[in-house]
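Late entry, written up from scratch paper. The run itself happened at the end of the previous shift, but nothing got recorded in the book at the time, so transcribing now.
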Amino acid sequence: MALKVITDTSCDLPEEELEKYGIEMVPLKVTFDDGKTYLDRFELNPRLFVEKMRRSKILPKTAAPDPHTLIEYFERGLKEAGEVIFVSISSGLSSTYQAACLAKDMLKTDKIKIFDTLTASLGTGIMAIKACEMGLKGLSLETIVREMEKIRKEREVIFTLDTLENVVKGGRLSRLEGLAADFLHIKPILRGNAKGVPEIVEKVRGRKKAIKRMVEMVEEIAGQVMGSKIVGISHVNCLEEAHQLAEQIKNRFNPRKMIVSDMSATVGTYAGEGGLMINF
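Output as recorded:
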C-alpha cells in the first residue's frame, strides 16, 4: 500500500480494525480534576475512563496532540508508505485538525493531506477505513480526498444521552434544568450538523423510546441506501444496549459492515455514561 492512513484516538476503531487496515492513531489527551493527564486509549482504557469520570466533580478536559507529536507520526508514515492522509475528528469539536495542518506546513510537503471529517467517534473511524479501501485500490491521494469530500456530505451521526450530568458539569445546562430533565426521564436525541457540531433535534421521554426513535431516524434519513454503508455504533459503558441496537439495524437494513465499540474518552467525556451513538 502506497498510502499510510493516520487518525486520532477519537476514531473509536477496535484494535482488529486498526490492525486489519494498518491504521495508526495519534493520542488525544484527557485531564481529570486531580490534575493527572492521560493519553487517550494509550494510557486510559474505557473502563478506567468511566471509573475516573464518575469520581470527577468537574468535566474532564480534553486536548489535541501538539504539532511536534503529529510530525513524528507523519514522518514515520512517509518513510513507510510515501504518502500520508490524516483523518481528523471534526474541527468543530477539537483543535486536532488545526494542529495537524500546522504540522504539515512545518514539514513543507505535498505528500501529506489533512482531512477534516466534520464528525467524531466511529464517524471518523469509518472515514479512515474508506480511505484505506481506496488506497488499496490504487487511487491517487488527490482522488481519495475528493471522494472523501463526497462521503463527508452524506455522513450522518445520531446519538442519545442517558444522563445530562456531564452537560451540567460542562456548564451547558444548569443543575436545576438537568435535575428536571432527569426527573421527567427526558432523553435528548442529537444529530451532527454541517459544521460538525451536534445539535439537539428531539427530546424523548424514556431510554427505550429514544433508542427506538434513533432507528426510525436512520430509516427516514438513509433507509434506501443503508445496504451499502458501514455502520458504527459506539457507547459509553452500555455494551448490551449497543449490541441490541446493532442487531436491530442489522435485521432492518442489512448494512455491508457493522462495527460496535467503546467510545473514547475524548468523545465520551461529553456524551457521559450511557451515551449511545450511530454513525453511518
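Residues 207-222 form the longest helix (16 residues).
(Scratch paper discarded after transcription.)
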